[in-house]
Amino acid sequence: MAADPVPGTVPGSSDPGREYGGRVVAVEPGGNEPIPDAERHGRPRQLFWTWTSPNLEFATVFVGVLSVLVFGLTFWQAVAAILLGNGLASLAHGVISARGPAGGVPQMVLGRLAFGYRGNVLPAGLMTITSGCGWFAVNSVSASFALNSLTGLPTVGCLVVIVLVQVAIAFFGHNLVQAFERIAFPVLAVIFAVGAVIVLTHFDASAVPADGGGGGIGGFLLTVGAVFGYTAGWSPYAADYARYLPADSSPRRTGLAAGLGMFVSTTVLMIVGAASVSASAMAGVTSENPATKYVGVLPGLLANLTLLAIALGAVAANVLNVYSGAMAFLSMGFEVPLRRARAVVAAAFGVIGFVIALLALGDAAAGYEGFLLVIVYWIGPWLGVVLTDMYLRHGDIPRELLYDRGYRNHAGVIALVVGIGVSVPLFSNQVLFTGLVPSLLPGVGDIAFFVGTALAAAVYAALFPRLSASRKR
Prior knowledge:
Oligomer: single chain
CATH class: Mainly Alpha
CATH architecture: Orthogonal Bundle
Number of domains: 1
């Protein structure tokens, strides 16, 4: 591993080669170093579309579909679970995003405060796998199915096109990513809004799932967990897209724009997804292609536009996944001895993600439920540690520790491991593995993320005074 740049010595206004500023069609230089004041630009409100556009996609809709089709909830039970899960996740996302301008560094670099320099390799590694591989594959497959349904071209060919587009955008970096999300926002918003109105006027809110609406408290908690897992899955990226804002940007406006963009987009589309189950059944749509089944409720032209929007929305999501996956990888401290280190890593993740997506084409929907819950098993405890660390530090960011290789904070690592290690064996409820409590009390469902988050926060708060601060090698 090579040393990270230290604040004050990174390329900035004194480095003519960096000159990036607000240029859109330019490859973002550097890696995970702090953003110099001369490079800062933008306004907090831009985070609204940054976090709205990537959620205007079928993967969001399908979480709502799962709530009824798999977890056995009625429509109104699903709505309650969606509101709760998204409310909690969006609140956390807003709070974390608010630190971005003051920190000026990627989210996983900020995470070093809670986990230490080397201890941060654990959450950064988990995020690298989750975003650069897992979410990349999920969204690429979703977009490929939509293009296949729209054009009739082979799904593999559609996958190649989708991957090339999203990797190209992520390769150029922050400014092009932000510009793409801004342009995609009105297009996606209008198409999905019109489709949502039609679905919500052609479904039966009193319809009962095939199992008689027997999801109960277990199904409700499973839905909350899946919803929280989907939305909170963006939180480890939060500061990545706020760090270029001027350092004196309002934390309140920054957090509000990010949190609202997240909450509005995910909540509306998940509710539409829950409604689409009865709407597609009433319309007699029986396709095995989940995207085709969803648009089967819509009239011809709108159906085609929605399929195009599904593909565009998946690209909007994956440019963030590839970009932030690369940032997380660099935050682990690995040496990439290139001036355009982030861009090169982003391209490499595109290749890896393509291979995983190709393997997932055969059974895309089967593992989505499990994937959402597995994500929340680590993100819940991670949030517990990070939010508690922010509270205990009163929001201060000791920048001298962010790139200090000797800085250790064992409290964070221990709390994360305990949170995951206790909650998963005892409270998880997966197809491949059922924890002790759900085995004895099946009606409980999966409450691993509730327990993991609370336990990690409590352990960190207890250990922080003894195992953190300025302990160094």
